[in-house]
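Thread: "does anyone have the structure for this chain?"

Original post by V.I.:
We have the sequence but no experimental structure in hand. Need at least a predicted one for the grant figures.
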Amino acid sequence: MKKSIIAAGVAGLMALSMTACSNGGGASATTGAPTTTAAGAATTGAAPAAGGTIGVAMPNKTSSRWVADGNAVKAGLEAAGYQVDLEYAADDIPTQTQQIDQMITKGVKCLIIASIDGTALTSQLQAAADAHIPVIAYDRLIRDSPNVDFYVSFDNYKVGVAQATSLLYGLGLTNKDGSKASNPPAGPLKVELFAGSSDDNNATFFWNGAIDTLKPYLTDGTLVVGSGQDQFGQAAIMRWLLETAQTRMDNLLTASYGGNGAGLKGVLSPYDGISRGIINALQNVGMGPKISDGLPIVTGQDAEIESVALINKDVQFSTIFKDTRKLADQAVVAAKAFLEGKTPTANNTKDYDNGVKVVPSMLLEVDTINKEDIQSKLIDSKYWTQAQVDSGQA
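Reply from O.Q.:
Generated one for you, tokens below.
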């Protein structure tokens, strides 16, 4: 699961201004991002590194979220005294593998990788291990390799829980905190389910958190998946693409809702780009154009400025805010710890099994954003400005 955002200061390492968050644009420097510290005892006895180059591999520039992450990580590392080789791979797996190969050949001291395909980097990670280069998986867990040293991300299962809880809230079945509503509507309420890209490990966590939350309502018939497509493989949107999501929603409307969406009340969406594709399809058949006009409830993730603007206009119902400034901070803290011969602090050492090993992880918390939260969570924290929210552009 994006244009530029503000990179907050890494604890004790940086105090700097950046633009952006999920969508490339400019906000002023934040002063409120929480600080974190890297771990404890030295494990190798190595002396602290005197600078050096760190390789940062990001999936693409088309999603403003990844532009924001790349910029934030780069700024944090440079503030800590390192040089940075930052590369974007245009969502092309061979390009990313080649970029990482070149970083290893050039002798980077550490790799921070947001993978396109979490299963496609085995040989690169082996080469990194052979060269004693620590590897930090950034937001997306890299699978099927013992050579992943650390993982920084958000609590992805809880992201799915938050998305499903928001859907239930939008449908009137629960309060915002997930507690049961006092006067819920009678079912059955028809919904549709979307999942992320099947080659992204996070997508499964999002899906599992959401389905576990929705299951009681699906089991008792309060919710019904109108198309019957309630399996991950049926709902997955490869590469998280807006266009692919819009096409699937078009097909669902034609096959299961008479072409006009009659009876559809809500759609679980795992990412804002997918959400916008879904909304396009719904509006194109005459639904809405706003929630107050009957547009189904649509969830999201990443607080991309285009979707935040839609939430502000009563079009998209919610998004899950993953403050990438904090994630970038953690990546910098982890890299610095490795290069000082220390072990980064993990707060989860049991849940993120990549198929070969359980990868020590630092997981961050998330916030659900509805219209009433935009000011306090996004504008006051300088993630987006009011002007950006009004225009939908970073």
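V.I.: this helps a lot. The first strand starts at residue 3 and ends at 4.
O.Q.: and Confidence is low (pLDDT under 50) at residues 1-49.
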